[in-house]
Amino acid sequence: MSFFTRLFGGREPRDALQPLYCMVVARARDPQWYVQGGVPDTQDGRFDMIAAILALILLRLENQGDAFGPQSALLAELFVEDMDGQLRELGVGDIVVGKHIGKMMGALGGRLAAYRDGFKPDGDARESLLRNLYRGTEPADDAVNYSVTRLEQFSAALAETPGADIVSGTVPELA
């Protein structure tokens, strides 16, 4: 928060997106991803799940052209801020936090590209998720099918949700 915002009581533009980001994290922490979906319940697995939900939302907003570009950028900033805080809680020092954040942003960018292709109508969401959510280790077919189906349904529901609703934090429930 900037000095003037604290002094004069204004709101940071990112504050309006906080409910959406909190929803992303809450959806990614749903235990069913880790139990039924076979996503590793590790720091990496939780990061990958947050990145998957966030990527699908960012891709939905991207489909609106430039209309939600600023909100998408601010949402990505909230992600960076959260990941920075998580790394510091884990004891990562100031000197290397930036390097870790750079890798995380690169990972998010990679997932955006993979999910952009994987979740389009003729895409292969399963392959995208195997590479990015499961990092190449294939769990049981039932687990992968669970995650693929649930994320495809979420992506389809997002496509039907107005962008203004999404940025306000009103996002479809996961099936």
Key traits:
175 residues; globular; 9 helices; single chain; mainly alpha
Tell me the Rg in angstroms: 16 Å
Q: Structural class of the helices, strands and pairings?
A: mainly alpha
Beta content: under 5%
Query: What's the mean pLDDT score?
Result: 88
Helix content: 55-70%
The sequence of SSEs as H and E is HHHHHHHHH
Uncertain residue ranges:
none
Number of domains: 1
Would you kindly provide a written description of the structure presented here, covering whatever features stand out?
With 175 residues, this protein is mainly α. The protein has one domain. It is built from 9 helices and no strands. The chain has helices at 3-8, 18-28, 31-35, 43-62, 69-89, 94-118, 125-132, 141-159, 163-167. The longest helix is centred in the middle third of the chain and has 25 residues, at 94-118. It is globular, with a radius of gyration of 16 Å.
SSE inventory with pairings:
Blueprint: H1 3-8, H2 18-28, H3 31-35, H4 43-62, H5 69-89, H6 94-118, H7 125-132, H8 141-159, H9 163-167
Helix pairs in contact: 2-4, 4-6, 4-8, 5-6, 6-7, 7-8
Brief overview:
The protein has 175 residues and is mainly alpha-helical. The chain has helices at 3-8, 18-28, 31-35, 43-62, 69-89, 94-118, 125-132, 141-159, 163-167. The mean pLDDT is 88.
